[in-house]
Structures are given as structure tokens and as C-alpha cells.
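Project outcomes to date are best conveyed with an example. Our students and postdoctoral researchers have been running inverse folding experiments weekly, and each run begins with a structure described purely in C-alpha cells. The record below, which covers 427 residues, was selected by the lab manager from last quarter's runs and is presented without edits.
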């Protein structure tokens, strides 16, 4: 018996794909992969507007933002929560011009309480015409979980976004997506900046990574009573996936002895043109009752960039998984690449990922039946139905709390088309 409750399950377009709009587990609420869709035809009619009046007000992208925020507010209210108890939001967009409209919609409702946020650009979203993919994590009121801002020194916040850089909720500390920007948000901070004429005076990825970790993530965690040592999970977005080896070299110099779950994917772009990476992170408070526990799983060592998983209280966070072994993409996926339109490589990739994830969850004392959310970062959105069939089999037909976006090519491992990022409940 699963220990989680599915919120507002719905079938997509009359297919057998059942989407879990949210998941409730203990005091947690997860809402993943929301777009302005009616779930039946595509983009909601009130968002698309009248074809004969394309310039009607409110603007098209503002309608889309309003629709998503209203849906999330309704879903959380039905569980006895409210938007004041959000602890984290993640947004993916295919085009930078829609971001400001979404942020205005968000701020109109959340006012001065915009929780830690990450916004990055991706190649494509699942619903045709959709421009925003939004995920949210919230806590239920009570039990000492009331979210409250921390005040990290020297961690600037973009004026138009206005998010809280560091947020405390019980024993947890959530940090917004950070870039190596200066305090004026006009460019790269001086310690992370490499002049164009400085041919070998450091590299951009090393300078920006080092600064971001030490001067953004570290003070933001410490302001909430946490530390790099007690970091639980990080998501890293690189504008050039070929920077991955140098990034990992810097990352592991800080987290090698006390690793946190890690997912790294490529992004089409960030809020600052000069920034080549953005990182969000969350941790547990150094003096709290909730302790960090590393989950070891040797069989999946070539499928991930961080530890198999890290547990923090009743949350189990896996590192992003891809279907790889010591030689690269698994042989089954490589040998069936010519049958991609039959879904053969995707089938084999998902089988490998789900087998590893289930074994990691079991090692941690739980099961994928307690899945809270899974974000799929894909090379091609045409593989989504096949990937979801893998989940249907693994979850015995239960609704899936999923999101999926198309990332820029190439993927971290050539021949792999899926990176799966999972959170699981461990009561």
C-alpha cells in the first residue's frame, strides 16, 4: 500500500495516460509539470483566446500565467493548504519573452511572498502552444512548518522576479536558483568574470562554478541554518553540456566528502546572457532533528553524477538517472537505435532507469509506489508516450506525477535520450 495520495488524477486527451496533478504525502504537497492545458484538446480556450482578436487584453502570456497560478491555488486549497505555504517553484519556458508575463501573474497573487524559484529556457514543452511548465512544492500548515524567509547577505534577487533567495520550513532550507551575477544584476560578478582578452586566465565554467558555490549557495544555505555539508539535492543547468567535466571537478572539490543528490542537464538559456550555469539547492538545518543520510547503490554508479540518493526526514531525493553503464549508453538502447520510431531504445532506457530507481528506493526503505514527482529531461518529446508506458507498468496503472521538457542536444551521455529526476516519499 502506497503512503501517498494522488491529487486530482486526470486522463490526457482520452488516452490511457493518467496524470497526477498533485501528490500528498505526510505534510508535503507536490504539483509537477503544470501547463495551461484543458487535458482534452491542448491549450485551454481562455488562454488561446479568439483567433479573430489576437491582441485582446490581458496579453496572451499573462492569461497563460494567470491560468496556471489559479489552477495551482485551487489544487492546494483543496488539500487544506494555501499559496503562502509554497516552499519552491520550478519553471521551464521555450521563449524568454514569456517570463516577465508569468512573473507578473505570479506576483499579483503571491505579493511579496514569492518562494525560491528557478526559471530556465528549454527547447520544447509537451503541449502545443504552451509557453510555461510549472512545478511547485508546498507544506501543509501547522507542525512548525510555517515558511519564513532567511536573509542571506550578498545574495541579490532580481527585481522583477522578487523571489525569496532562501526559505526555512521546519528543518528544511530551500534556496532559489542562483547564477554568478553581480549585485546590480547587470553582468557577471567580478570574481567570476574572465575578460575576453584573458586567454588562459582561468576558464569561464570554473570561475563561475567556484563563485556560485562559495558566494551564492553557501551563504544562502547558511542564512537558513544549513550548510554545504548538509545539502540534500541540487539541480544544475548548463548552457553548454560540454562544460560538465570541468563543472564536476569544481563541484566535487566542495561536495566530494559530503555529497548531495545531483541532476545536471543542458538549458537553452538563463536570465543573464553571460551566465553559463544556474543551480538550485536545498538542505537541512545543521542543528535540526532531521538528519542527512547518503544512500549507497553500487549497481547504478555509472547512471548518475551524484550519490544514488540522499534521504532527509521523509524525503528521498535521487540523483538524475540515465541508462548508462561503464562504456556509455546501455547496449540495448544503442543496438535498437534504428528502431526508435517503434520505441525500442526508449523502452530499454526506461527499463534500466526504473529498475535502478526501484532498487535505490528499496535500499532506502521505500518504493517507487511512493513517487512524489519525476521530471523527464529528454532529447525528443516524441518518446514521452513510450516512457510513460514504462511508468504505467512500474506503478501498476496508478496516475503519474510527471513533467517532461526537451533539452538542447547533446545529452550528458551520447546515445541516452532520457534523464529522470525523482523525489520519493520515505515515511
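After processing, the design step wrote out the following sequence:
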Amino acid at each position: 500500500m502506497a503512503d501517498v495520495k494522488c491529487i486530482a488524477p486526470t486522463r490526457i486527451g482520452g488516452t490511457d495516460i493518467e496524470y497526477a496533478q498533485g501528490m500528498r504525502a505526510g505534510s508535503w504537497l507536490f504539483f509537477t509539470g503544470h501547463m495551461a492545458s484543458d487535458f482534452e484538446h491542448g491549450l485551454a480556450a481562455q488562454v488561446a483566446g479568439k483567433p479573430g482578436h489576437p491582441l485582446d487584453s490581458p496579453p496572451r502570456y499573462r492569461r497563460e500565467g494567470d491560468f496556471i497560478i489559479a489552477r495551482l491555488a485551487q489544487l492546494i486549497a483543496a488539500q487544506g493548504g494555501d499559496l503562502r505555504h509554497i516552499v519552491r517553484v520550478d519553471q521551464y519556458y521555450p521563449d524568454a519573452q514569456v517570463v516577465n508575463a508569468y512573473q507578473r501573474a505570479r506576483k499579483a497573487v503571491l505579493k511579496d511572498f514569492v518562494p525560491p524559484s528557478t526559471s530556465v529556457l528549454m527547447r520544447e514543452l509537451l503541449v502545443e502552444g504552451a509557453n510555461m511548465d510549472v512545478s511547485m512544492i508546498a507544506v501543509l500548515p501547522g507542525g512548525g512548518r510555517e515558511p519564513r524567509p532567511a536573509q542571506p547577505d550578498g545574495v541579490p534577487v532580481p527585481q522583477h522576479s522578487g523571489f525569496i533567495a532562501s526559505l526555512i520550513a521546519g528543518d528544511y532550507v530551500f534556496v532559489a536558483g542562483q547564477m554568478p551575477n553581480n549585485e546590480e544584476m547587470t553582468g557577471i560578478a567580478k570574481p567570476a568574470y574572465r575578460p575576453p582578452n584573458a586567454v588562459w586566465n582561468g576558464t569561464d565554467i570554473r570561475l563561475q562554478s567556484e563563485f556560485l558555490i562559495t558566494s551564492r549557495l553557501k551563504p544562502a544555505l547558511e542564512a537558513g541554518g544549513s550548510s554545504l555539508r548538509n545539502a540534500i539535492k541540487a539541480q544544475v543547468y548548463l548552457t553548454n553540456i560540454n562544460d560538465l567535466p570541468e563543472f564536476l571537478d569544481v563541484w566535487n572539490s566542495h561536495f566530494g566528502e559530503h555529497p548531495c543528490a545531483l541532476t545536471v542537464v543542458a538549458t537553452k538559456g538563463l536570465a543573464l546572457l553571460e551566465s553559463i550555469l544556474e543551480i538550485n539547492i536545498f538542505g537541512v538545518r545543521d542543528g535540526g532533528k532531521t538528519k542527512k543520510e547518503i544512500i549507497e547503490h553500487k549497481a547504478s554508479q555509472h547512471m548518475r553524477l551524484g550519490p544514488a540518493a540522499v534521504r532527509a526526514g521523509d524525503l528521498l531525493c535521487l540523483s538524475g538517472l540515465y541508462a548508462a553503464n561503464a562504456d556509455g549508453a546501455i547496449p540495448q538502447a544503442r543496438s535498437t537505435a534504428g528502431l526508435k520510431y517503434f520505441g525500442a531504445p526508449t523502452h530499454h532506457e526506461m527499463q534500466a532507469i526504473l529498475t535502478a530507481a526501484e532498487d535505490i528506493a528499496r535500499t532506502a526503505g521505500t518504493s517507487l509506489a511512493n513517487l512524489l514527482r519525476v521530471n523527464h529531461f529528454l532529447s525528443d518529446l516524441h518518446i514521452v508516450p513510450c516512457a510513460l508506458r514504462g511508468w504505467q507498468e512500474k506503478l501498476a496503472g496508478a496516475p503519474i506525477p510527471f513533467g517532461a521538457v526537451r533539452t538542447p542536444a547533446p545529452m550528458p551521455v551520447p546515445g541516452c535520450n532520457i534523464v529522470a529526476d525523482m523525489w520519493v516519499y520515505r515515511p
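Helices lie at 45-48, 60-77, 99-110, 204-223, 244-255, 331-335, 344-363, 384-394. The chain has a mean pLDDT of 95. The training component of this project remains on track.
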